[in-house]
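**Polypeptide and fold**
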Amino acid sequence: MSYSKNNWNSNIQSLKKKGGKDKDESNKRTFRVVELNGKVVEFGNFTIKKKTSSGKPGPGPIIAARKALQSIAKYLKVSKSKLNATFMIQEITRGKSQYKIYGPYEGYYRKYSPKESKNKKIKTKDGSFIMLEYEPIIKLEKSKGKNKTKSGGG
C-alpha cells in the first residue's frame, strides 16, 4: 500500500479532530505554592480551566488555592484535621508575561457531619464510590492595617 497525498490529508484531518490537545492546553491556567506560613517555598502544580464548557470565564485562583490545600497537607506531613495554613500561590501558565501572585489565603479543612457525608459520594471510573470526609475552606486574608505594599494595576 502506498502512502498517497490523499491518505496523508485525511489522516491529518482525523488527527486534528481527535487530538484537540492544543485547544485543551490553551484552556488551562497553572499555579504553584510560593509562600507557606511566612516562608518562601516552591511546590505544586495545580490546573484550573480558563473557560467553562459554555464559554464563560472559569473559576478564579481561589479554586487553585483549594486544590493547593491538599498538597500543603502532604508537604507539611500534617493530617487534614490539623491543617491550618496561610499561603500564597503564583500563576505559572505558559505564555503569561507576568507571573501574578495571589493571596495570602488562609486554608483549613472542615470535617463533614455524618448527615452531610452521606451526600458527599463521588463515583469513580471503575464504578466504586469515594466518601468525602473533609471540605476545604479557603479565605482570602484581608490586610488588617499592616504596612503592605500595593502592587500596581491589580
In short: The beta strands are 28-36, 39-49, 84-91, 101-111, 121-123, 129-131, 134-140. Residues 92 and 98 are 9 Å apart (CA to CA).
